[in-house]
Design brief:
Largest sheet: 7 strands, mixed
Strand order of the largest sheet: 2-1-5-4-3-8-9
Oligomer: single chain
Number of helices: 5
Shape: globular
CATH architecture: 3-Layer(aba) Sandwich
Radius of gyration: 14 Å
Length: 158
């Protein structure tokens, strides 16, 4: 398994299948990190769809999305479930940002956040428009997560 990217280093590039929900309908596609150069990206790795802590975390990010979009940042959720699971989860809670499916756990491994038992450590990375990691949070047990205000305080200024 790769090491967790250090602040100030290049974020590993990737392409994953994704689903985005808007106005009650879902759109599937693929999402590539390097295609979003120029934008700040908030990558939120989470263990599982429709689980209590993950639901609370992603719903809170949706409720506070203006804290990210107000600073021109995009939020992406990444977990090992497939697109069907992501779509059902996003529709159920009206999640307002893309969920990326890392079924093979390749990106989870590249970012060094794989964890025996739960599959992925709850983690958040802020990646600037040049593809550099500017802040990271990597949970130990997966029960806590940074709130939107904490993440927003680490977003680079436009």
């Amino acid at each position: 398994m790769a090491k967790i990217p250090e602040v100030g280093t290049a974020a590993p590039d990737f392409t994953l299948p994704s689903v985005t929900v808007a106005d009650g309908s879902a759109a599937r596609g693929s999402t590539t990190l390097s295609e979003h150069r120029g934008s700040t990206i908030v990558l939120a790795f989470y263990p599982g769809d429709d689980t209590p802590v993950c639901t609370k975390q992603l719903c809170s990010y949706t409720s506070d999305l203006d804290q990210f979009t107000g600073m021109d940042a995009l939020v992406w959720g990444i977990s090992p479930q497939d697109l069907d699971s992501h779509e059902a989860f996003a529709l159920k809670y009206n999640l307002a940002f893309p969920l990326l499916a890392d079924v093979g756990r390749s990106v989870i491994s590249e970012y060094g956040v794989a964890m025996f038992g739960i599959g992925v450590r709850r983690s958040v990375f802020v990646i600037d428009g040049d593809g550099i990691v500017r802040w990271r949070y990597v949970g130990l047990a997966g029960l806590k997560y940074p709130d939107a205000a904490t993440i927003a305080s680490h977003l680079p200024s436009s």
